[in-house]
Every structure is written in C-alpha cells, then in structure tokens.
Design goal:
By secondary structure, the protein is an alpha/beta fold. The chain has helices spanning about 10-20, 30-35, 60-65, 70-85, 95-110, 125-140, 160-165, 170-175, 190-195, 200-220, 245-255, 275-280, 305-315, 330-345, 350-365, 405-415, 435-460; strands spanning about 40-45, 45-50, 55, 115-120, 150, 185, 225-230, 260, 285-290, 300-305, 375-380, 380-385, 415, 420, 425. The chain binds 3-[O-phosphonopyridoxyl]--amino-benzoic acid.
Length: about 475
C-alpha cells in the first residue's frame, strides 16, 4: 500500500490535535486524555494508522466511501479540473461543463422523473435547502400556509440548525434550543425496540399511520412535507417492516404532502439498488443526496427534484433566494461524475444486489447465534446487530449504552471499524468489499463479541432493564 510515512511521531500529532482541533460529535476531554487515532492512508477497504496498523473499514469512512479508497482516477480528474477551472459559481446566470454533465448523469440514474438537482456541499445543507424549497413551492402555488414539516424521532438529517431540527435526535435538540418551530416528529418504524407484541407487519402499519394522525392534527393545509430516510442510518440501521413504506406513500399521496427521501446514506448503491427508494418502492418528490455521490473524495450533495416541483420553479417560482458559494463546485462535480462512472461501468451496484449483499446477509445472520445478540438485520451493505442481556425478551441492558462502547473498542483493537449506536453495532463497508474481506469482517466481529461478553459479565453489566 502506498502511504505517507514521513509524518511526525504519533504522540506529537496527538498533542497538537488535542491543543488546536475541536472534533465533531466528540467529548473533547475524553478524547484528549486518550489521544486521537490518526489515519494516514487507505486503500480498497483498508485504513492505515500512524502506527502502521491496518484496519478494515467497516464504515466506509462515515458511510460514504462507496467505491473504496485509493482510486487514482478521481485524483487525476480533480487535478485536471483544478488546472482548467478550479472555481466558478453557478449563480447569476452562469454554469460550467462539470456541473452540467453531473446534473445530467444524476437525472439518468435517479428513478422516475427526478431530473433536476440543486447542489450543496453535503447532506446537512441539502436538507436545509429542502426546508426552503418545499415552503417556496407551496407559496408559489398560492398555499403559503403549507409550511410545516413532519419528520421522525431518531431520524438523522444533518447538523445545521434546520437539518438538525428535521432530525429526531434528542441529544442534539438538547443543545441550542432545537428544533426550530414548524417541525414535528412521529414514531420510527423500529420493531425490535418498540414493536412489543405486534408482528413486524402490523407494527409497520401502525408506525406509518402515525403520519396520518399527525397530518390530521395539524390540518393538511398547513403541512408541506414529510421527510425520512428509506433505512435509518445514524439511528442504528433501522430497516422498516415491509408494510411501512407503501402506507407512508399512500398517506402522502392522499393528503397532498410532499415526500422527501433522505438518500444521503442509502443512495448510490448502499441497499443494492442505485437508491433506497427503489429498494423500498418509494416515489419521492425530492431526494437528498451526498456521501456516495462522490464516494467522499470531495464534499458535495444536493436536492434532486421531480418534474412536478421543477416545473413550478421553472414557471412560477420567480427568483429562489437561496444558494451556497460552492453549489456545484467544479472540482467536486468533476470528481462526483468520475465516481458515478466507476460505480456504473464496474457494475458495483449490481454486485451488491446479486453477490456481496446476499453474502453479507447470510454471514451477518450467523452473528445472531452469539449469546450477546438479540437481532441481526441488513439491507444491501448496511447492517446492524442488537446487543442484549436476554435475546428471547429483546431486553435492553439495565445500564443502557454501556456495552456498545466496549464492543466498539474490541473491534478497533482487532483491526475492524464497527460503529456503536447505544448498544447496537453497525456496519456499512465500502461497496467494493469482497467475499473474503466479508469473512474477515465477520471473524473479527465474532472475536469482539466474545471479548465483550467476557468484559460485560465481569463488570456485572449483563442485567436486563426495561424500555
Ligand atoms: N442525511 C442523512 C441521512 C445522513 O446520514 C446527513 C443527512 C448530513 O450529511 P452531512 O454531509 O452534512 O454530514 C447525514 C450524515 C454517523 C454519522 O456517525 C452519520 C452522518 C454524518 C456523520 C456521522 O452515523 N450522516
């Protein structure tokens, strides 16, 4: 593996990082005591840290490096684009070849008539754009009261003020007075934890019908849109029961509510189709995209609009007073286009659908035999396991959130990045992961589970709590 070896000593970099860098979603005091793990290079599905350890990246960075690390084609395209046109904007009646080609390519890949993209730098700002888009859409149609947006508890839509308000993360709302007004949250389709005695199918219907109840409470003349992830990612890879999405679609259609599918994680092959909307039979009016759009090689995202919306913006909307300096950035656009070419020409999405996705599903299910595991689930190449002290009862730990971090630490010590969300363990590896690499991932996960069970037992954590 090519790697940069001439970096300062790890301890020096850690000290400098601790002194000058404020990390996202991080307890700074705890990090500074321990020191950050410093990743210096990567290739395929493997990371290398500053101590020379090679670690299997079960999270594709942050769910984004779909084509894997080390694709020089993207570096070459970036270099060429920087020499030719490093920056120009897409405001004020200008455009450039890279963004034009990318917008056309996205239109060719997205389902139905999702044909027009407003570009952002990532998912958070794309979802902030969506708030303004849907409100401007309804106002342009003479319905200025249709402003309210319904989202879901434990959904994740980003970290800016608007997108964090769309998200349903209580810990985020607790800091800084969120959510902003005009947004409310309904129950999530999380059968394992919230389904009780209901079958997954009955529970899926019940969870979807919470949307209809909320629309009726607010009055449909006041509701602009419903936003949700096809499969919740950051919330813990929550795969909805099969009954959920058809009922959500029926309710949105019946009440004239725009449906926003946040495909930031599920887009670009993650679930074994180009978009999660295809896997789950969703017909969105707007799709949020980011992450896999460029496989994380450049920061870029967007909101893809159906013809119904695009037509209103093209005909009645007047000026849309909104945009980012880097909307459709040429280097990011050129890199994203090259990434989509690779995903397309190398049949990476169909390999997930036909080969590695089913293989992961089979091998991942084997983890369910471990005494610490209450459920396994997956969709394409995203998967979760529920850790539990009592699998038969689907019981949470009495000390909620105490065992997941232990398991995460054992994973990393055994050279596997697997993330914990409370006491759920989740993976979303690069889409180019091979079957032997999946075998390695499973082997390391089993070992981490064994060590976690030993620690949790020794620390007296194997006690059931209540939901
Ligand atoms: N929507 C969804 C569905 C996401 O998963 C965003 C929007 C925001 O995108 P940006 O590009 O602004 O980050 C996301 C991001 C995690 C984790 O630990 C997940 C995300 C970001 C950071 C960490 O699971 N998702």
């Amino acid at each position: 593996m090519d790697h940069i070896a001439n970096h300062p000593a790890t301890a020096d970099m850690q000290a400098s990082d601790a002194a000058h860098h404020l990390h996202p979603f991080t307890d700074t005091a705890a990090l500074n005591e321990k020191g950050a793990r410093i990743i210096t290079s990567a290739n395929g599905v493997m990371l290398r840290d500053s101590e020379g350890n090679e670690i299997l990246d079960g999270m594709a960075g942050l769910w984004c490096v779909n084509i894997g690390y080390g694709r020089n084609e993207l570096a070459d395209v970036a270099s060429r684009q920087m020499r030719e046109l490093p920056y120009y904007n897409t405001f004020f009646q200008t455009s450039h070849p890279a963004v034009i080609a990318l917008a056309e390519k996205i239109a060719s890949l997205t389902p139905g008539d999702l044909n027009r993209t407003f570009f952002s730098c990532g998912g958070s700002d794309a979802n902030d754009t969506n708030i303004r888009l849907v409100r401007h859409y309804w106002a342009s149609l003479g319905k200025p009261n249709k402003t309210h947006i319904i989202a879901r508890k434990n959904g994740y839509h980003g970290s800016a003020v608007g997108s964090a308000s769309l998200g349903g993360m209580e810990a985020m709302h607790a800091q800084g007075g969120l959510p902003i007004p005009g947004i409310s949250h309904i129950a999530q389709p999380y059968w394992y934890a919230e389904g009780g005695e209901l079958s997954p199918e009955d529970f899926g219907l019940q969870a979807a019908q919470a949307l209809e109840a909320e629309i009726e409470r607010l009055g449909e003349d006041n509701v602009a849109a419903f936003i949700a992830e096809p499969v919740q990612g950051a919330g813990g890879v929550i795969v909805p029961p099969s009954t959920y999405w058809p009922e959500i679609q029926r309710i949105c259609d019946a009440h004239e509510i725009l449906l926003i599918a946040d495909e930031v994680i599920t887009g670009f092959g993650r679930t074994g189709a180009w978009f999660g909307s295809e896997t789950y039979g969703i017909k969105p009016d707007i799709m949020t995209i980011a992450k896999g759009l460029s496989s994380g090689y450049q920061p870029i995202g967007g909101s893809v609009l159906s013809e119904k919306l695009a037509a209103v913006f093209a005909e009645k909307g007047g000026e849309f007073n909104h945009g980012y300096t880097y909307s459709g950035h040429p280097v990011a656009a050129a890199v994203a286009l090259e990434n989509l070419r690779i995903l397309d020409e190398e049949n990476i999405v169909s390999t997930v659908a036909k080969d590695t996705g089913p293989y992961l599903a089979k091998r991942w299910a084997e983890l369910g035999e471990h005494p610490l595991v209450g459920e396994t689930r997956s969709s394409g190449l995203m998967a979760a396991i529920e850790l539990t002290p009592d699998a038969a009862a689907r019981a949470p730990f009495a000390e909620s959130g105490s065992v997941g971090p232990i398991c995460r630490d054992h994973c990393v010590d055994n050279h596997l990045v697997m993330r914990h969300v409370g006491d759920k363990m989740i993976i979303a590896p690069p889409l180019v992961i091979t079957k032997p690499e999946i075998d390695t991932l499973i082997e390391r996960a089993f070992k981490a589970l064994d060590l976690t069970l030993k620690d949790a037992t020794a620390q007296g954590l194997m006690k059931s709590g209540s939901r």
